[in-house]
Amino acid sequence: MFLKNLHKKVLSEKSSLSTRFLLYGGENLKKRKETIAKGIIALLFSQVLIKIIGLAYKLYLTNKEGFGDEGNAIYSAGFQIYALLLTFSSTGVPNAIAKLVAERVAIGDNKGAHRIFKIAFFTFAFFGLSGTILLFLGAKTIAVNFLEIPEAEYSLITLSPSIFFVSIISVIRGYFNGRQNLSVTAKSQTIEQIFKTMFTIVLVEIVANVTKNNTMIMAGIANLATTLATIVSFIYIYGYYRMRRGEIGIEIAQSVNYVPTRIRKTLKKILKESIPISLSSLMASFNKNIDLFTVVKILKRFMSESEAKIQYGILSGKVDTLCVLPLALNVPFVTGMVPTISRVVAIGDMEELNKKINFFLKITVIIALPCTAGLIIFSNQILNLLFPNANSGAILLQINAISIFFVMLSQIINGVLQGIGKSNIPLISFSIGMMFKFLANILLVSIQNIGIKGAAIGNIICNGIVFIIGMISLIKSINLKFDKKNLILKPIFATAVMSIFCIFINFFLKNCLSEKINTITSIILSTGVYAALILALKIAKN
Fold this sequence. Notes:
The chain has 2 domains: 2-482, no CATH class; 484-542. It contains 20 helices and no strands. The protein has helices at 2-14, 18-26, 29-63, 68-89, 93-106, 110-147, 153-178, 183-211, 215-243, 245-253, 263-299, 305-324, 327-347, 350-377, 379-386, 394-419, 424-445, 453-477, 484-509, 515-536. The longest helix is centred in the N-terminal third of the chain and has 38 residues, at 110-147. The two termini are 26 Å apart.
């Protein structure tokens, strides 16, 4: 029903402009698809590089004398609050702007697309500045009264300027994503992560020597590195926009289908798209902040405050870091999917919409299943390999890894819902999931035999609920036909075979190689087996 109504709406609105639309919508279609593919590949490469580099500085911090799990608790506490405030000003904004810009560009209205960008730029710059001031002035109150981790005050202060710069960066990224120029986002993110790692290692080393490994100051300076890297990223992406202004100006001059609108009306449209998406991201961010606000408080009932912080540091500093790594492989598809789906909806190609959704879901399942299985099977060995000086948390990692599958699929499903104008559904699903996560933490973490593992179980419950609600809503919204064999059965079979091979080869090499070499070799060989199965079963074939 949704598709039929949408199709009628598109025909009625676009019929008088069909000639111009075909010119702009159909011209150089092959070239445009190649550009999208290159952009996704660039994003994929950058995300992998970003996570590898990010893991490098995380390993450095965790294994650094005087930092460890306690330092991770202070560092993560500050960063989670920063991420929460950042949601209001920037998270979700790139997708919202990309969606609106893609819709305008799809019908040749480059002038309208640029107008959306300019209004969003100044709007979110204001929101970002407000977030910066709020975090800077409220750092002590948040750290002492809400987190009950007073040491996090300096981390919050040093992170506060980042909110302003990231807000502006997000709008620029969204504008270029909507224009199918995904490479600029990839480059800016890579530059930011490279400088973040460099600044972190250099500054922490200096502070460690001066303060004789003061954990609180090292955590604060590590977060300062985030702010400095954000400024560098802003300089790059804004400079890129300035260089492209001439080309953009020519496109604006050649614009068709432009309908002048008041700033208030355009702003209302931007907020209508961005607020539900940002609130959805806010609910997702709350998932981590629920751990921040509840875990240490509850654990202190049956263990010392220091031990409680260490337990939270294991979850936030190591387990969450490892479980986020696979998401990097999915980010490029989510980023490229929202404007792609929006453009397909704008031109009314419903058959293509079905194909795109199946493609993105299939790719996600192919990535998510082996990542989940791999972290479960190699949990202890991976922690020994990456965190030799602080290797606890294997069971916690195994439990939390299950949520990866639900998170990755939810990213795609929610992106599709946003692309077809159903942005309120992810907000509802995350709100419900968050409530169950909170209840799970309160009930499970307080059980001494479960403890910190209750937070990981809560993650599974929360993300499972988000996935189920999103999938049901998507099926009801559009007449989506699933390729069950290639989407479900074959990937599960390939993952099962890979898992059996993992266990076998790991056992076989155990007595032949050292644990580190064995782990690396087993992962590489298992990945090769899985890739061969994907090709042999023709799962990725459209």
